[in-house]
Design a protein that fits this description.
The chain contains 7 helices and 16 strands. It is α+β, with helices and mostly antiparallel strands. A 7-stranded mixed β-sheet has the order 1-2-3-13-5-15-4, covered by helices on one side. Strands 12-6-14 form a 3-stranded antiparallel β-sheet. The chain binds fe (ii) ion. The site of fe (ii) ion has 4 residues, from loops.
Length: 295
Amino acid sequence: MKTVPDLESQFTRLKLRPLTGSLGADIVGINLNAVDEELIAQVQLALDHYHVIAVRNQNLDPASLHEVARRFGPFTGNPVHIPLDGFDDIVRFTRSAADRGPVVGEDLHMDMPWMEIPPATTMLYGEEIPPVGGDTLFTSLSAAYEGLSETMRSIINDLMGIHSGKGVFALNASHRALSVKSNAQAIDDIETEHPLVCVHPTTGRRHLLLSAALCRFTGMTEAESMPIINLLMSHAQRVEYTCRLRWEPGTLAMWSNQCLMHAAINDYPGQRRVVLRTTIAGPPPKAASAAECSP
Ligand SMILES: [Fe+2]
């Protein structure tokens, strides 16, 4: 978390508790079923600076989550999952007590980085949460960028990354509880180019646009690219760049999807966990190099 003078004084309508020195904050004392433009703006401000926020003690259902989400921006679309009946933008992820094996999203990833414009924000609402286990781990791609040497930054600043959709369909289809769209197989063929080093659209803070879907850099072979990608992936997982969000029923998490990676922790066998997800569109990733040139 980069220190911004007077940031805290702008949160006049909510109570904010930072989770770690790098990212994340709990928000208490608000009711998302009764929001106005000022409160939405303060939550968005908290999100822009802390990159992941957990709004506690909410009472949402798919309809009210839809209402809240759309106050923050339009739906991104979701080419992978079949939404709940009556909604185009809400997916329910259910892990039953009998389910075994991997959980959805247990490896560090970014949500849909292979889209032309990856989601700016992911929203996840806890409907049923085990008493312990099932935390979400986040790692800040801003803190990771800032932790690189100046020489390394100068090497990577202008790289363009290719993000592949290969394997996304098979991975999601392998989860019994997930309903996958029939045309989702086409995601395998998607390759989308994004700048590796971007600036946040409102704070101007730099971050890596890095994920497990990054397969090579433009103008470089895979053999040339992978050592750099592996180095950055390893570096971005340093513990000082992370936080763990501990869920409760009624927690609404929001995260700045392009500025971090996250992982669902698979440590609650025999317990049921149900969450609702939607995603919010924002501007396309903006290259840090381009930002320097613009007035
Ligand atoms: Fe995810």
